[in-house]
Amino acid sequence: MELATKKLFGTDGVRGRANIEPVTAETALKLGRAAAHVFKTLESHARGKGRHKIVIGKDTRLSGYMLENALSSGILSMGVDVLFIGPLPTPGVAYVTRSLRADAGIVITASHNPYDDNGIKFFRADGFKLDDVIENRIEELVFSGDIENIRPTAGEIGKAIRIEDALGRYIEFVKASFPKKMTLDGVRIVVDCGNGSAYKASPCVLRELGAEVIPIGNQPDGTNINKNCGSMHPEEMCRKVIEHRAQLGIAHDGDADRVVFADEHGNILDGDDIMAITGLEMLRQGTLREKTLVATVMSNAGLDVAIQAAGGRVLRTPVGDRNVIDEMLRGGFNFGGEQSGHLIYGDYGTTGDGLVAALQILRIMKSNNALLSQLVLCWKRYPQKICNVRVRKKTPFDKLEGVLDLVKKCEDEVKPVGGRVLLRYSGTELKARLLIEASDNAVLEHWSHEICEAIQTQIGEKN
Are residues 327 and 395 in the same domain? Predict the structure, then answer.
């Protein structure tokens, strides 16, 4: 298939199998050139001293070296400097981009996906993700070749610089989100870094604040990111919490922009649990702006009930942390997130940050002298079932025989008792995602099986 027939940007940057279009060195080179041109035109003068500059960070995937070099070559060829900051959590790249007054930031990551995938995400100079307008401009230049003749020469070519203190900058930024007079002395924490970009930052921050840290998933080798570890596979973290009698377990995904927790009994808490705990605490403290929590359509309906009972409201957006952030910016809200563990603390950062989220939960635990198992009792989760079906292609659901009929029958049964059904395709993977909420677990099991089986039979990935 010709590259020009494809769309590069998905719901979270460019993503796919590494070294297969569009995640190839050739396309990364073109993306680097196009992005450099677009960001230069957005700012007629460099934000700091000297030339325009773009920060490049990455996670720990083997293919990151290939993409990093290709991207930087494209950027340098357009007369823009490159600042390499090495493996660093995605929110760290966003912060360092702002801190160094760069024109843009790029992070090479496929987040929670397996190591053989990779991706390219962009940040504006202010640390926020690109809007569709800027993404479209970059994409058009990649496809059109309109900048092929723009080639600075001699002293106008950009230079590459390695920033040695990027990790230290991010660590100090994260620590600043924790109360200065509070420590983590006496707190034992298991932290699973997912063999990803938080493998240095998370243990370091927690130790410097006084915690006793048991790190796992902190030996990346380029191929073990997210492999049976991290937020997608937290079982080992839970086991270690029980084994070491820790008060808390923390599990990051590959780029550490999301997090899930385990209480002292090894029970998992997801993003909805953390939004309930944090949202209610902020309502009590009067710090939740406009008394509004921003969540996506995937969050459990029990979240609305708990927040409303405390005098607040939950505002729903489509799936994706960028949608949450956009709504937060539009309404002037300062807290939001996703069930998956993307948690955005607008008072501290510009994107989801698993480490900042962990410190906020630890702050609430310390302030209330409470364990996580006690804090989570603040809300009641509605029975919910989420199923993922790996598919060969994303055929519109109305083109699949009987699928929408089954969805309609399910809705007819669950809606009268406050339930709901949501069927969609993942924006970053070849997966169909089904969410059903109902008052009866037997109903959940029946309809999730029927609908997923209908999808699997027609377009499911063959084993």
Answer: no
* 273 contacts 262 by C-beta, under 8 angstroms: no
Could you tell me if 10 and 16 are in contact, meaning their C-beta atoms sit under 8 angstroms apart?
no
The owner of tokens 């020009």 is 4
CA dihedral 330, 336, 339, 340 (to 10 degrees): 90
Question: Cα(237)–Cα(241) distance, rounded to whole angstroms?
Answer: 6
Tokens matching residue 429: 């993977």
Task: Give the DSSP letter string of 220-243.
Answer: --SS-TTSS-STTSTHHHHHHHHH
* Residue 391 sits in the same domain as residue 290: no
245: left (phi over 0), alpha (psi -120 to 50) or beta: left
What pLDDT sits at residue 427?
81
* One domain for residues 73 and 133: yes
pLDDT digits (tens, 9 = 90+) for 198-225: 999 999 999 999 999 999 999 999 999 9
The two three-digit tokens of residue 291, written as one number: 């008394």
Query: Is the preceding omega at residue 234 within 30 degrees of 0, hence cis?
Result: no
The per-residue pLDDT for range 41-55, each reduced to its tens digit, is 987 666 766 799 999
| Helices 166-175 & 354-368 angle (0-180, nearest 10) | 30
Instruction: Evaluate if residue 4 carries a pLDDT over 70.
Output: no
Identify the CATH number of the domain in which residue 445 sits: 3.30.310.50
- Residues 74, 29: contact at Cβ < 8 Å? yes
Classify 368 as helix, strand or coil: helix
Are 171 and 359 in contact by the 8 Å Cβ rule? The answer is no
Same domain for 368 and 393, yes or no, is no
For residue 18, which phi and psi values (nearest 5 degrees)?
Answer: -65, 135
Instruction: Find all residues with CB under 8 Å of 261, minimum gap 6, and list them.
Output: 248, 249, 250, 251, 268, 269, 273, 274, 358, 361, 372
Range of the domain at 117: 3-164
Q: Are strands 268-269 and 292-296 parallel, antiparallel or unpaired?
A: unpaired
d(CA 340, CA 259): 8
389: helix, coil or strand?
strand
- Lowest-pLDDT choice from 1-5, 17-21, 107-111, 123-127: 1-5
Residue 304 has pLDDT above 70, yes or no: yes
| Beta strands per DSSP E along 165-216 | 188-192, 212-216
User: How far, in Å, CA of 35 to CA of 304, rounded?
Assistant: 40
Given a cut of 70, whether residue 6 has pLDDT beyond it is no
Quote the number of domains for the chain: 3
Active-site residues, by number, are 111
